[in-house]
Amino acid sequence: MSQHSVLLLPGDGIGPEVVGEAKKVMEAVASRHDFGIDFSVADLGGVAIDNSGSPYPESTKELAMAADAILLGAVGGPAWDGLPAAERPERGLLAIRADLDLFCNLRPALLYPQLADASSLKPELVAGLDLLIVRELTGGIYFGEPRGIEADESGLRRGFNTDVYDENEIRRIAHLAFQFARKRGGRLCSVDKANVLEVTMLWREIVSDLASEYPDIELSHMYVDNAAMQLVRAPKQFDVVLTGNLFGDILSDTAAMLTGSIGMLPSASLNSESRGLYEPVHGSAPDIAGQGKANPLATILSAAMLLRYSLNEDAAAKSIESAVERVLDSGLRTGDIAAPGESVCSTGDMGDAVVTALSAS
Ligand code: IPM
Ligand code: MG
């Protein structure tokens, strides 16, 4: 029987609630598929600041380095909003991404037919939507130097960041995007701002050069402003979308909303050894934290991605995904995906229902 190690980073806000449900589901699926998981738990984000003064403590780093995969809830909240940029909970998340070299962020946006009415777009525009955003996660303006806020002699302050990618960083993420396109619909759209920004002129050139190695993939390029418009105008034109760190942050929230609720969307952040950190696309939702109102499905589906990409347990991943479908078929809804007037279940009810649906397969 294979034994895997998974580090849980519940984080802040609704993080602990949704990670708790995903853990239940992982335990249940492991026993059905005959493998074991050793779970460890550590602090990241605001909770880590409160407990040890740093958003990414050394003890968390050691466990992160040792684990086969990491499941994260969410970080951040109003309690830490007043802190200087370098001490905020979000810095913990950026640090762990950089530390583990998790440059490849996968954000699928899949519309479950059961939720077509929950989308803010007309059902016919989103029915059958299934796209994958491949976001570069450890470079670009999020990490570029120089950065800071500085005052000149007169006391006038200026804030600045640097958007920078070298050829190798572009090439390694682009290769993966072409390969994901090959496993899916065979179409790749690279999103940039090559009409203005030199860094993305290079991006476009490198991605175009790679196309000859993937003659079976239909490559297109789109400026980010147009991509934002196309995502809400005709989102089904996209199969795989490749983009940099900042554009990917923004476009993935847009894509998430097309599916009805950001509470449904999982993500994976991988390095070149397929070690990864998995997290829901949504944030810590401090307004509903601790009330059992959060939708745990994005985290449960992130656990499925974890099983698939880092633990190589594809059958177990599929079991979770079909269990989620069955639960949606049964009509169970947390508040974020309920139609007006429909009755609403708790975070724990939803997690329990997925565990029960696992045994129905
Ligand atoms: C995300 C989040 C993060 C990001 C924040 C919390 C640092 O918005 O994962 O999309 O900007 O990458
Ligand atoms: Mg974001």
User: What fraction strand?
Assistant: 15-25%
Radius of gyration equals: 20 Å
Secondary-structure content class:
alpha/beta
Number of helices: 12
Instruction: Give the ligands present.
Output: 3-isopropylmalic acid, magnesium ion
Summary, kept brief:
By secondary structure, this protein is α/β, with parallel strands linked by helices. The chain is built from twelve helices and twelve strands.
3D structure, described in words:
The protein is of the alpha/beta class and 361 residues long. Helix content is 40%, strand content 19%. The protein has 12 helices and 12 strands. It has a 10-stranded mixed beta sheet with strand order 2-1-3-12-11-4-5-10-8-9, sandwiched between helices. The chain has a two-stranded antiparallel ribbon with strand order 6-7. It starts with a strand and ends with a helix. Magnesium ion binds at residues 249, 253. Magnesium ion is lined by residues 249, 253.
SSE order and pairing:
Elements: E1 3-11, H1 15-32, E2 36-41, H2 46-52, H3 58-66, E3 69-74, H4 89-99, E4 104-110, H5 123-126, E5 130-136, E6 148-151, E7 157-160, H6 167-183, E8 187-192, H7 198-210, E9 218-223, H8 224-233, E10 240-243, H9 245-258, E11 266-270, E12 276-280, H10 297-309, H11 314-329, H12 347-358
Parallel strand pairs: 1-2, 1-3, 3-12, 5-10, 8-9, 8-10
Antiparallel strand pairs: 4-5, 4-11, 6-7, 11-12
Helix pairs in contact: 1-10, 1-12, 6-7, 8-9, 10-11, 11-12
Using brief descriptors, characterize the structure shown.
single chain, alpha/beta, two-stranded antiparallel ribbon, 19% strand, binds 3-isopropylmalic acid, binds magnesium ion
